[in-house]
Amino acid sequence: MAHPTRNKFDEAWAAEIAKNKYQKKICMEIDKYNRVIRELKYLQIKHMQGIYDTPEDRKLLQKYDIMVEDGREWLVKPAPHENVAANLLKYVINLELFDVLHEAHQSTNHGNFKEMTAQIQARYCNVSNLAVMTYLRLCQHCANRNAMVSEILNYDLPQREPSPMRPLKREFNLHGSYFSVYFGFINMQEYPRDGYEYIMVHWFLSNQFVHLIPLRNIEPNNVVISLMDIYGTFGLPNYIDAPFDMRYIHSIISHIKAAWSNGVSIAHRNPNDMNISQHGINMIHKTMEPWVNDANFRINWPLNLKYLQFWMNNQLKPGLSESPYHDMFNGIGRTL
Questions:
Q1: CB 228 within 8 A of CB 208
Q2: Number of helices and strands in the chain (H, E)
Q3: 315: CB partners within 8 A, 6+ apart
Q4: What are 212-249's pLDDT values in tens digits?
Q5: Max intra-chain CA distance, the chain
Q6: φ, ψ for residue 187 (rounded to 5)?
Q7: Which of 23, 147, 214, 327 could be disulfide-bonded to 196 (CB atoms 3.0-4.6 Å)?
Q8: pLDDT tens-digit readout, 173-203
Q9: CA dihedral 241, 246, 247, 249 (to 10 degrees)
Q10: Is 0.85 surpassed by the pTM of this model?
Q11: Mutual orientation of helices 129-138 and 113-121 as an angle, nearest 10°?
């Protein structure tokens, strides 16, 4: 049974070829593919008979070669003379272009443009970036995911001037009867590094201890992996909050409950935490903004985040009598 997206892709790709001469030039219909194979075989016979190549023959041989794989003859791009052991890149015919794109997309778990092109360019030589983009625009799963991500990133809490922080009551403390956490994201897609495109900022409301974690995407299952790294060390919170759509937060909580096997209870947002949360958002954004906008920091920001996390946790915060690090570990972090 044909994939439901195939016909849509074939129609969209035919429209692209019709208006783009370059795409039409690099694409191969099956008739041309088979004709080139026949011409190459004829040239092999000419060589055996000692007949010299014409300029047209040499041009063809520079562009194409034949490789047999699994009983099928493939047109491939000839290996450079200086590297005969190089991986031979195949030519794709239009009839099989969708299959090549679909395989790359599925094998990268609905990978993005960079992930798909990296895989395709390691195996094929005439699949263009436009073909990849045409396929990605038609993937409904990615469209739904991107809509969710866009909704998450565009969601913004109304900024208000926080009221003065009062000394926190002990029941809010991480070591007391319950504690709350808050997390959000910083979009770093303009500065991708090693596949990472987001920063998750997570902190305990009781002492403002911060975790800064680089993420490749902000899908719930990926976010929960990083959250579980935190909770596997410090324990699960009673309340978790974030400035996002309720469906997204509930999905996060559901993933955590599924991973934690003893029927743990986590609730979304404690109303008593609202002022503390808002104060933390404003303070953390103000602290991180000069770092994130610094060109030197962005060169390797996923690694530099860890020093920034350490630095932030060793600063004395308003409303607290000691730094978050000191409150958490009853000591001062080593700096030298």
A1: no
A2: 14, 8
A3: 287, 323, 324
A4: 999 998 888 889 999 999 998 888 888 888 877 778 88
A5: 95
A6: -80, 115
A7: 214
A8: 444 445 788 888 888 888 888 889 899 999 8
A9: 0
A10: no
A11: 130
